[in-house]
Amino acid sequence: MTAPVDVKSLSDAELAAHLAEVAGRILLAVRDSGVFSAKALGKAGDQTANQFLVHALREARPDDGLLSEEEKDNAARLDKSRVWIVDPVDGTREYGEARADWAVHVGLAIDGQPVIGAVALPGLDLSGSGAGTVLRTDRTQALPPAPQKLRMVVSRTRPASEAVAVAEGLDAELVPMGSAGAKAMAVILGQADIYLHSGGQFEWDSMAPVAVAQAHGLHCSRIDGSPLVYNQRDVYLPDLLICRQEHAQMVLSLVKAIDKAA
């Protein structure tokens, strides 16, 4: 039996990382149980991981607000300075297909800013320990050297036309990938250089990944260059740019030119 964890004694970053990692293990156990059909697996995993995360956060941080993709929204969060924003399974299709490009997001926005976050990639076991990979705001790593040819991660099922146009303008290689969290972490891990999304998202899709990306020194903004703000009444957040700092202005200028020409 695992020793009890005093979650109230953990720092916010430690708590985010611990919960994301445990939720990832729960999701793997749900999938490996063999109980669910392919059609039912996504819902079962989402709901199971969500219940764990919601109850754990209410136990550990009872005074904080909470926004989860799998929970009914609550107006009470709007009056909170500290709001946890979680996505129990980002990339449900990839999770069901036992791919590596799905994630668990646990993040904390303070006064609307993405301050604390952890992104678990349970299907990507970089260490060989069998525990997957967790990237977090309190344990950063140096970015790998940038290659000569740029690489841009895009949706593996429906690449946004704007992102494809920017990739063409940069002569960048397209790297199809599943979840938003996996795409953002790919830039940190050196699997890509740019993640540009313009096809519509919600706050839980990007909050934790943005917090982690910013902690690693990456540029994070809307595609018009404006800041990303969270814990809004309308949780729809349509676009996102995460990239190495040296590419940001070039990408933003291309987006502006493409939009002007459209």
From TrEMBL:
Molecular function as annotated in GO: 3'(2'),5'-bisphosphate nucleotidase activity; metal ion binding
Assigned keywords, A-Z: Hydrolase, Magnesium, Metal-binding
Any GO BP annotation: sulfate assimilation
Residues given in the record as Mg(2+) 2 binding sites: D90
Keyword Hydrolase: yes
Cofactor(s) for this UniProt protein: Mg(2+)
UniProt xrefs under SUPFAM superfamilies: Carbohydrate phosphatase
Pfam family, one: Inositol_P
Regions that span the bilayer: none
InterPro entries reported for this sequence: CysQ/Inositol_MonoPase, Inositol_monophosphatase-like
Protein name: 3'(2'), 5'-bisphosphate nucleotidase
Originating organism: Sphingobium vermicomposti
